[in-house]
Design brief:
The structure holds 2 protein chains of 2 kinds.
Chain A: E1 14-25, E2 28-39, E3 43-47, H1 54-61, E4 69-74, H2 79-82, E5 86-89, H3 103-108, H4 121-133, H5 149-161, E6 167-171, H6 179-192, E7 197-202, E8 207-209, E9 214-221, E10 228-237, E11 250-259
Parallel strand pairs in A: 3-7, 3-9, 5-6, 6-7
Antiparallel strand pairs in A: 1-2, 1-4, 8-11, 9-10, 10-11
Helix pairs in contact in A: 4-5, 5-6
Chain B: H1 2-8, H2 14-39, H3 43-65, H4 74-95, H5 100-121, H6 129-133, H7 141-170, H8 172-177, H9 182-204, H10 206-221, H11 227-252, H12 256-285, H13 292-295
Helix pairs in contact in B: 2-7, 2-9, 2-10, 2-11, 3-4, 3-5, 3-9, 3-10, 4-5, 4-9, 7-9, 9-10, 10-11, 10-12, 11-12
The chains are: A alpha/beta, B mainly alpha.
Chain lengths: 271, 297
């Protein structure tokens, strides 16, 4: 087993697979021959410096953008169908700061279905549970805009959890977050580990949370040196990480090492 | 004020009653659509649509006066232009991330210019000011019927699709990931707003429609706890401003549309001023380094 793996799930089926994905914005190439996969129950960090193409990968996973080449499989279907099983936590909700809405109403939005007319008792039970998980029950009736940045981020996580997703996708969950909110967030993610697949996107390329099973790095140039590709790096425990990071222990990303995309899988793949 | 109520019940002055009914029917749209326009931050788009409407009015007046399409009412041309403008602006806004502002402002200006050109070539005297600033004398029973129908349509749409409207207004990208047809919601909203703008301009005029789609909703936003509360409150405020503006306009012999907007603007600015004072007082009594959110976490 390669050095630095804490755990992974090669015996579990794929939930997400990028196969030689190519993507460009007009004439500007972004991704080239990007291949990676995530197994059910894994906790994966997608790291890369700003501008490397992390947001593009996220948009492709969520079906908000379409690849120019290659294929993406999410829960055995296209992202537009498979995303129904994803709980998405954006970096921040792009909302009007004067939008009158309570914390509970924001979380309730996670239960929305395309043609529903109103929320039912099952929805409200799920909202209560999600608020409890994120330690936000006391703030349920508070206006969303009155919360601190870290609290708002936890509300967005609760919104994603309220739909009991099979996979949680978090975009830069800890940027500008206070230490207390970060600790509470990772405590909640720790409780989900193994049961829910987690994909965290972060620009912090040095360290990742100790919950992480695998690290995927966006940024290395692709085979024909026009776009970026995605490489898997090793991780190892470290004592060098700042103590307040990730609410506890961190792992160091070994950028000088790379692993084959299928290194964790038995011959023939895991599907 | 007594003079207004005498006029209201005077059988020889039906236009006063029409104006009052138009104000009350308009308030439903000002309150509900205004709330959505405000929280979705698309007032600029609604402004462009409302001004482009003049092009349709001018064209209809020209075609009718030159007997190309005799008896074509200005409202028909206005609706065609409004819906076209809404579709162009909507598609540009969804597809093109660059130069969106330029296209929106171009539609705004081109629409108005087409209106001015058509009116200049329309035989007889055509005064654009009644369309620009509203004229309660021009409100017909047909206008009231159309306003009433649109009120019912908007109320039904909000009742049926409130969760989708709330989710797309708050966080469009998240709503899209949840499988909602956010583009369809956006286009329907723009088209309904476009038709509403055409019907509402009879009461306050093209130039001031956008003020009434934002000021009552903005005022309601100071105290509303959620979007439905904001809609109801904005509806209530709009009714007060409409009736108040009509009474004041009649009493002091001033244009009603402008009076309604001045009233709505004065109340909005007063609310903003008091909110600013309150926030400053709160900040000065709060311990240093503590945000309101952290204080109660």
């Amino acid at each position: 087993m390669p050095t630095g793996y804490t755990s992974h799930h090669p015996d579990k089926p794929f939930v997400l697979q990028f196969d030689h994905v190519q993507f460009s914005y007009g004439q500007v190439p972004v991704l080239e021959a990007a291949s990676f996969h995530i197994h059910e129950g894994e906790f994966v960090a997608l790291v890369g410096p700003n501008g490397a193409g992390k947001t593009t990968v996220l948009k492709l996973v969520l079906g908000l953008a379409q690849p120019n080449g290659g294929s993406i499989t999410l829960f055995g279907s296209s992202p537009r169908i498979g995303r129904d099983r994803i709980g998405y936590v954006p970096q921040h909700a792009d909302y009007d700061p004067t939008f009158p809405i309570s914390v509970e109403e924001v979380v309730r939005m996670g239960r929305i279905r395309p043609f529903m007319r109103s929320y039912g008792s099952k929805d409200y039970d799920a909202v209560r549970k999600a608020l409890q998980t994120m330690e936000l029950s006391d703030l349920a009736k508070r206006p969303y805009h009155a919360l601190s940045g870290g609290q708002r981020r936890r509300v967005l996580v609760a919104r994603a959890l309220s739909a009991a997703p099979d996979m949680l996708v978090l975009d830069e969950p800890t940027s500008n977050m206070d230490a207390d909110s970060e600790r509470r967030l990772f405590a909640a993610l720790g409780a989900l580990k193994g049961k829910t697949t987690v994909l965290i996107v972060t620009h912090d390329t040095g360290f990742v949370s100790s919950l992480t099973d695998r690290v995927l790095c966006v940024g290395d140039v692709g085979p024909s040196k026009i776009g970026r590709t995605i490489v898997q790096h090793r991780i190892e425990p470290t004592k060098d990480a700042p103590a307040q990071l990730f609410g506890g222990d961190a792992l160091k990303v070994l950028h000088d090492s790379s692993l084959d995309d299928d290194c964790c899988c038995p011959p023939g793949g895991a599907e | 004020m007594i003079a207004f109520f005498e006029a209201l019940f005077n059988p020889s002055m039906p236009f006063v009653r029409n104006a009052l009914v138009a104000g009350l029917l308009s308030s439903v749209l000002f309150g509900i659509l205004g709330t959505v326009v405000t929280v979705k931050r698309i007032a600029g788009l609604a402004g462009a649509i409302s001004h482009a409407v003049l092009g349709g009015i001018g064209m209809a007046l020209y075609l009718s006066a030159t007997k190309v399409l005799p008896n074509l009412p200005p409202i028909a041309g206005a609706i065609v232009f409004a819906v076209l403008a809404a579709l162009i602006i909507g598609i540009v806004s969804m597809k093109a991330k660059q130069r969106e502002d330029t296209v929106i402002n171009a539609i705004w200006a081109i629409g108005m210019s087409i209106g001015v050109l058509f009116m200049a070539k329309t035989p007889g005297y055509t005064d654009p000011s009644s369309y620009l600033f509203g004229n309660i004398l021009l409100i017909s029973t047909r206008d009231l019927t159309l306003l009433g129908i649109l009120d019912v349509v908007v109320l039904i749409l909000v009742w049926r699709f409130y969760p989708q409207l709330e989710a797309t207004s708050f966080d469009n990208e998240f709503a899209q990931v949840k499988g909602l047809s956010t583009n369809a919601v956006f286009l329907i909203l723009l088209i309904v707003t476009a038709i509403a703008v055409v019907l509402l301009q009879t009461f306050v005029g093209i130039v001031m429609v956008i003020a009434m789609l934002t000021l009552p909703a903005g005022t309601a936003g100071f105290s509303a706890k959620n979007m439905i509360g904001m809609m109801v409150l904005a509806w209530l405020y709009s009714s007060l401003f409409s009736v108040g503006g009509l009474v004041a306009g009649w009493t002091f012999d001033l244009p009603v549309g402008a009076m309604v907007v001045v009233l709505a603007g004065a109340v909005f600015l007063s609310f903003s001023f008091f909110r600013l004072l309150k926030t400053r007082r709160k900040k000065s009594t709060q311990p240093l380094g503590q945000s309101p959110g952290e204080a109660n976490a």
